[in-house]
């Protein structure tokens, strides 16, 4: 009888944990011949800050940093404690990284001039979107846009460095703090998602080359606004209901957008009687998500125009937003157009 030595199978024990965010960024650096590592460093700085914010969110109920801070931001909205914490963390990380010359934040009235004239980039951000939901343990997020400054490096920051349309973004992304924490971003070469592995302290590639469905059956809108919205949007929502579409609205922009990006759907925050210009901010909410949407094969509109083509005229400019699966966005636009004829 022939025998052979026992050789245990270790393949199940040596499974690959995947590609880290840092390694992925290094692999993709050749996509940017005009850059010499600065953009990669900014993405790393944002990832670091998001890990710190993730920690603060997870311990919010134990460390008394939930709830209202006691003041309002430039939008007239009550600031939450975690709004302030997140703004500090991201601003500090971007300042210390040394690649950014200015920051635009939802939580600050004016542009934050970092007095770093050698910085080549401007970052616009909503440090913690949907933060009022933290007290009831609902998913929230961070949204960011990265622009390359247009004035010469070494000179003081100018308004034209800030007031750039979304089609000038060099990168954009969001962080979703939910059942798992994800960082999703694009640099104009597709969209990739990374999930945070807390025990290792690393983001790992989990959703490569995200492609949004062209059509969907989910609509996301605050129907409590029904008495304030136009007939065109009412007609579109009625059409969705007649086809037994699913209504899904969390109230956290990042969470609603992320779900529809993966599953197919449309997110709508239209102009209303009380907010005729819309509610969402162009520079650091709509532009970022529109860039991601288009890179994933979806669409983003203000109801008439492509979001990325809108020229901003003020720092905290608002806009209506129709974003998601292309077929659904085009149909919503069609209902709006019909109602105005």
Task: Write a short abstract of this structure.
The chain is built from 9 helices and 17 strands. The protein is α+β, with helices and mostly antiparallel strands and 341 residues long. It is globular and about 80 Å long.
Q: What is this structure's SSE topology?
A:
Layout: H1 21-27, H2 38-58, H3 60-63, E1 68-72, E2 78-80, H4 81-97, E3 100-105, E4 112-113, E5 121-129, E6 140-148, H5 159-162, E7 169-177, E8 181-186, E9 191-197, E10 202-207, E11 218-220, H6 231-242, E12 246-247, H7 253-263, E13 266-269, E14 280-281, H8 282-295, E15 299-301, E16 318-319, E17 321-324, H9 326-340
Parallel strand pairs: 3-5, 11-12, 11-13
Antiparallel strand pairs: 1-2, 3-4, 5-6, 6-7, 7-8, 8-9, 9-10, 13-17, 14-16, 15-17
Helix pairs in contact: 2-4, 6-9
Please tell me about this protein's structure.
With 341 residues, the protein is α+β, with helices and mostly antiparallel strands. It folds into two domains: 21-207, 2-Layer Sandwich (Fructose-1,6-Bisphosphatase, Chain A, domain 1), CATH 3.30.540.10; 218-340, D-Maltodextrin-Binding Protein, domain 2, CATH 3.40.190. Helices cover 31% and strands 24% of the residues. The protein has nine helices and 17 strands. It has helices at residues 21-27, 38-58, 60-63, 81-97, 159-162, 231-242, 253-263, 282-295, 326-340; strands spanning 68-72, 78-80, 100-105, 112-113, 121-129, 140-148, 169-177, 181-186, 191-197, 202-207, 218-220, 246-247, 266-269, 280-281, 299-301, 318-319, 321-324. An eight-stranded mixed beta sheet has the order 4-3-5-6-7-8-9-10, sandwiched between helices. The protein has a five-stranded mixed beta sheet with strand order 12-11-13-17-15, with helices on both faces. Strands 1-2 form a two-stranded antiparallel ribbon. Helix 6 crosses helix 9. The chain is globular, with a radius of gyration of 21 Å.
